[in-house]
Amino acid sequence: MDLHRLTGPSASMCAARDDRQLVADLPAGTHYFAVREGEYIFVVFRAG
Length: 48
Known about the structure:
Layout: E1 2-6, E2 14-18, E3 32-36
Antiparallel strand pairs: 1-2, 1-3
């Protein structure tokens, strides 16, 4: 699997990448992610 956090709606706007897990504190708003290859479960949750 290939997981990307993007700063905008384009693959060239990659801010972080990993093959298993990304952890980030994100402010309220719109966020872009891309998940490529294989089977996966994509989970986003609000903490606190």
